[in-house]
Amino acid sequence: MEQSQNNYSRRSFLKVSSLTGGGMMIGFSWLANLVPNEALASAATAKEWIQLNGFIQITPDNVVKIFNPNPEFGTNVMTSLPMMVNEELQADWSKVVVEMGDYDTPRFKSQFTGGSRGMAQAWKPLRTAGATARLMLMQAAANEWNVPVSELTVANGVVLHKASNKSLNFGALATAASKLPKPEKVELKKTTEFSLIGTPQKNKVGKDIVSGDSLFTLDYKQEGMLIAMAIHPPAFGMKLKSFDATEALKMPGIKAVFDIQVYKDGYTRAGFDTRAFNKLIAVVGNSTWEVLNARKKVVAQWEPIETTKEMVAAWGGKKEETVPAGLESTDDHMKQMYAMQQKPGKILRKDGNPEAAFAKAKKVIEKTYSAPFLSHNPMEPISCFAHITDEKAFFVAPIQIPDMMKQNIMANLDIPADKIEMKLARMGGGFGRRAYGHYIVEAGHISKKMKAPVKLIYTREDDMTNGIYRPSYMVTYKAAIDENNNVTAISIRGGGIPEGAVHENRFPAGVFENYIAEGWDIPSNITIGAFRAPGSNFIAAAEQSFIDELAETIGKDPLDYRIELLKKAKANPVGKNNEYDADRYIGVLELVKEKSNWTKKDKNVKRGVAAYFCHSSYAAHVVDVTMKNGQPVVDNVVSAIDCGFIVNPEGAKNMVEGAVVDGIGNALYGGMRIEKGAAVQKNLNQYRIIRHKEAPKNIDVHFVKNSIDPTGLGEPPFPPVFGALANALYKATGKRFYNQPFINDLNKG
Amino acid sequence: MSKMNLKVNGKQYEVDVDPSTPVLWVLRDHLNLIGTKFGCGVGSCGACTIHLNGRALKSCQLPVSAVGTQAITTIEGIVAEMGELHPVQKAWLELDVAQCGYCQTGQIMAAVALLKTKPNPTDEEIDAAMTGNICRCGTYIRIKAAIHQAAKSSTK
Fold first, then answer.
1. Could you tell me the CA-to-CA distances from B73 to A310, B77, B90, B109, B154 in Å, in that order?
2. Could B42 and A683 be called an inter-chain contact, meaning their C-beta atoms sit closer than 8 Å?
3. At B53, is the pLDDT very low, low, confident or very high (cuts 50, 70, 90)?
4. CB-based burial of residue A175 (10 Å sphere; 0-12 exposed, 13-18 middle, 19+ buried)?
5. What sections of A199-326 are H helices per DSSP?
6. Distance between CA A373 and CA A473 in Å, rounded?
7. Which of A101, A181, A305, A722 is most solvent-facing, going by the fewest CB within 10 Å?
């Protein structure tokens, strides 16, 4: 058994009332989690919930509810995290109800959807919460029957005393259990003792999803609610000068048009406070269509920004960030990045003497890779509900890391922390975009001004032209090869707009005696943000394409060559701070080799391989491509993943499939161009996202079986897809693909 | 503004809206039928797919004034029609299709319409019929498998 210290401060016995199907609410049981209110509790529909700890509530008639702490944007935490709790609680899983927890990070310890950390952060605390509650229920039964706890067993939500053949369900024990002191220490099961974790389980809220039940922020509605939209400058590098709303205000259903300043002057931004434009025009009215039409009538004057400095306090330091004036363009960006590649960058890491090795080299291969901005384009456009009153600030928000918004809301909306209430609605995708909650503050300003409940809606165009893109990147890989066909040095130089993606301590660092990594940044007024596996999603494509080309140059099998390099790094690691575990890297390569029948050479199968490590997990893919009428068809993908112990194999498999499709889509088609400061692609008829017919025909997902504590899965399978596809396309077309999206070079023939 | 009668999921509704209002916003803002989703507003993503006289159509591109007496069916009506989940919805659950879930009601509406005209579609027919429905999470393979499964269960 694994010992776990109990960190849960159980609140004193708390009755929580639930009002289902309340008058003005649609769908969500929004009130299910509010503090007790006797008036509401007396309503006919009320149920008594007995809270055993922050994660578990039970009714006397034996309904067990488990709260999911982490915002859900499609990684299936509504199922996998409650599974962790229930593994130890041992309620009847088929009858357990799950509910999205509100923003209450002290209660849940962590509410963080991002960086593929959900599983790792929840792993111990959630199982501990389950074990604590089960022990309290057992103790209550022991007291009732006057027998020692050690004589009791628990299965499917029933506590049993075999000797006397007595049993009681959790519901019958909950009230007594809730009055007991919490156990100081609990013992957690070993992975070999699991009966729920590790078994494939269907999505607990699947029925709501397929029925179209209200789940998302955009669906939220409340009596008296107004609809708001914002108008932002037409280009990065522009700001609001003045506007005339005379005509807009004459339109039917329109309540008000005004400007808002999102952040106060001099506000020090935290890491997730990125926003593209600080002054917006808000148009507020009764219905979406009326507001959409009225905002076309607003006549706005825009003016160029001056170069400004903003304070940013993030990632362990405070620094001044320059926002340069000017209207930028993709063409200029490419020229600037090529220019940076011609001179030395900041040295990030250096092992041995790479200069000497390159000077002595018989042959040098050098390849440059680039990638454009990407728009996240989650399917549900950005939105937020806000109702600011003197009593409280109530939000319904799609936000990946709610606690990161607290100081922003406090500072810019002048709301004390204890008045912030936030419902965390299911998010229609995120991919990193919803880590940046400027829209929460925007909705708050509008509600404050209107003194009314307001739902702020971004159209697809509003979101797509509003920045927070995946940065645009460039990198050059260089290898020195001696007369014996050995690689003697590797050089990596790269950067981005406005930040680069070189991970100096990742593979192939640690393999080669002589190694140098350099980086540079180019400031920009185009805002960027985390995009599924930030940085990795570009550098993996470049690195894994280059390794492929290197293997070919020296006459080695690309998959075996990767294993050879990793074995070298394992036996004799070069330098310090190498981030990866060579064994686990080799593990996924060996697994994908076996499962894809890599050694069985078939001339008709054009395939590429790639592997990558990021966010504590390892992933490898083999992608098979054929060309049909000049367009690639992905016939098959075999994936091998090591993300430790798999909590829910069903959901995990789905995640990997999605990452593969997403990787192929973004590698082939993804790209946001900028001209005269403005986003060129403004909607989904211009910005290409992978569709049904372009998806792989088949994806086989395999997991390395081990008992390592679970690590992330949302991001790690994504980056290596780009490289595996590039390498397969090379086999299918004879051309290497250096610039994303690959479709541009493909179509050039 | 003008008053109009709409037949949605077999029920008659009277709405008083601008005649140019897309059916999407009439459903969501005025009739509280929020299973039909807003994704792009230009008919490119399929999140707003409904049936008009049984045929799949993007409701963000259909002005309410063009509906007349034609029957609108939304995802809420698909459930009601059957009295329980539709075989397509059941297949979606059995194959655990959804990730974020936002596009799935539109996908299901497109799939239900497809199976009405082609009870046993090929992969290519599914690709062609579903091409207007984007899933940003990339659940396409499961969607295809679920359509095949629903086809099988309906022809049993």
1. 51, 6, 18, 9, 20
2. yes
3. very high
4. middle
5. 206-211, 246-250, 288-295
6. 8
7. A181
Top-level class of domain A344-374+469-748: alpha beta
Distance CA(A180)–CA(A138), nearest Å, equals 11
User: Considering only alpha carbons, which residue of chain A is nearest residue B88?
Assistant: A210
Q: Which residue has the tokens 């935490």?
A: A77
Across the beta sheet with B49-52, the strand order is B11-17, B2-8, B71-73, B49-52, B55-58
pLDDT at A39: 30
Name the token pair of A662: 């997403």
Q: Which distant-in-sequence residues (6+ apart) come within 8 Å of A580 by Cβ?
A: A506, A507, A510, A613, A618
Q: Where in chain B is the domain with CATH 3.10.20.30?
A: 2-78
B37·A218 Cβ contact <8 A: yes
Average pLDDT rounded to a whole number, residues A627-653: 97
B9 touches chain A (CB under 8 A): no
- pLDDT tens figures, A689-701: 999 999 999 999 9
* Residue B81 binned pLDDT confidence (cut-offs 50, 70, 90): low
CB pairs under 8 A between A and B: 192
What's the distance, Cα to Cα, between the start and end of chain B in Å? 49
Which of A209, A287, A684 is facing B98, going by the closest CB pair? Answer: A209
Q: Any idea which fold B2-78 has?
A: Ubiquitin-like (UB roll) (3.10.20)
**The token pair that represents A546 in the structure block:** 């280059």
Enumerate the residues of chain A whose CB falls inside 8 A of the CB of residue B136: 377-379, 429, 431, 662, 689
Helix axes B87-94, B104-117, angle to 10 degrees: 130
Q: Inter-chain contact B41–A460, Cβ cutoff 8 Å?
A: yes
In terms of DSSP bridges, do strands A678-679 and A158-161 run parallel, antiparallel, or are they unpaired?
A: unpaired
Tell me the average pLDDT across A95-112: 93
Residue A254 confidence (pLDDT): 98
Q: Is the pLDDT confidence value at A3 over 60?
A: no
Q: What is the mean pLDDT of chain A?
A: 92
A15: tokens are 């009755």
Q: Rounded mean pLDDT of A617-622?
A: 98
ipTM of the shown complex: 0.98
The percent of residues above 90 in pLDDT, for chain A, comes to: 89
Nearest to A187 by CA among A268, A275, A107, A87: A87
pLDDT at A316: 81
Contact (CB, 8 A) for A396 and A425: yes
Q: Please tell me the CATH code under which domain B81-155 is placed.
A: 1.10.150.120
Percentage, residues of chain A above pLDDT 70 = 94
Distance from CA of A427 to the nearest CA of B (A): 7
Look-up of token digits 């959804």: B98
Asked whether the beta carbons of residue B140 and residue A695 sit closer than 8 angstroms, the reply is: yes
Checking if the pLDDT of A180 tops 60, the result is yes
Are A372 and A741 in contact by the 8 Å Cβ rule? The answer is yes
Mean pLDDT (whole number) for B127-138: 98
Q: Is B58 on the interface with A (CB under 8 A)?
A: no
Burial class of residue B52 in the structure, from the number of CB atoms within 10 Å of its CB (0-12 exposed, 13-18 middle, 19+ buried): middle
Residue position matching structure tokens 């509504």:
A78
Options 2.70.70.10, 3.40.50.2000, 3.30.420.40, 3.30.365.10; CATH for A2-206 is: 3.30.365.10
> Which residues contact residue A463 at a Cβ distance below 8 angstroms, ignoring those fewer than 6 apart?
A375, A377, A381, A382, A433
Can you tell me the mean pLDDT for A281-293?
Answer: 98
Specify the domain boundaries for CATH 3.30.365.10 within chain A: 2-206, 217-308+382-457, 344-374+469-748
Asked if A668 and A721 count as a contact pair (C-beta separation under 8 A), the reply is no
CA A613/CA A164 separation, integer angstroms: 55
Q: Which two tokens stand for residue B38?
A: 């807003």
- pLDDT over 70 percentage in chain B: 97
